[in-house]
């Protein structure tokens, strides 16, 4: 049956138009819903339906009653001001005994001769948090994870009290009177990077941020690169990852050299 005024299938022009329309539709569908989603770095082949749903911005699983998958947390430790209090003599003594297992890397008096961090005079809440993160698997290190696995909360608090009681690994705190790298002094406002000195001691200190004066250069550079790559991710709210993500190798070198420059005998 032919509708008056409309070309029929026998019309070559009409037939070719319909065929090309179908070809273009199928081609656009494959490009938009299959080819383009497949070039994304986080694409995983889960079938045609999943690709279509991803491109269309709709869920591929309509199980409304299913519990949403939670993203892994960077740390389970909640900092409390009580963690920063000075430890008792008994706690320091117990911590000194426990620290005998730490001397090979961190030195007999908390001063490392390798690229392990200096712990002498470190803020107690910093040590508590890091040990709890190692114990909970939020920070990776084969040695530290094994050592922290059997530590109780009391053991960790005693270790923190002991190391905090030792003289800091520094000669003098950072001041604005000395030459400071740009990131240390003013940060990078256009990249939303705060000055290092606003958190890490010397001029100001944010509760829970480690003291960096005198830290081994190799350790500082390694941690900044680990934050930058996402290999280390136990910083709450991704604070350090956001800072390090846009840091260049030269900036990491400058910051690491600056903070390591005062390494030496602890001040009395």
TrEMBL record:
UniProt domain Cytochrome c: residue ranges: 79-167, 182-263
Domain of life where this protein originates: Bacteria
Classification via InterPro entries: Cyt_c-like_dom, Cyt_c-like_dom_sf, Cytochrome_c_Oxidase_Subunit
Entry keyword annotation includes Hydrolase: no
Keyword Iron attributed: yes
Keyword terms, alphabetized: Electron transport, Heme, Iron, Metal-binding, Transport
Protein's name in the database: C-type cytochrome
